[in-house]
Design brief:
mainly alpha; two-stranded antiparallel sheet
Length: about 100
Amino acid sequence: MARHPEIYATAEWSRVRRYVISRADGLCESCIRDKKVKPGKEVDHIIELTDNNKHDWNIAYNPENLQYLCSDCHNHKHDRSIGLQNFLFPPGIKSPRGEKK
């Protein structure tokens, strides 16, 4: 469940979410920057939404602070991974993306 349901349940969020997906042509914006084509899945806040800034329109709803990401890029941005990824690329070992874990 989303951490800020009071934002994600609004009509304004629904509108801006559709806009961001359309702007990205349904593709992951991070993958596109890396010259890959992959469908997006998550509308992500570039500046993370927190309890302290969630009522700031420029953070919560401004399309310039939103990007459309695939699950892999979204999880990578938030340093989330599945156990298999940690098994294959333990901390300190470079992943195929070239970053140290």
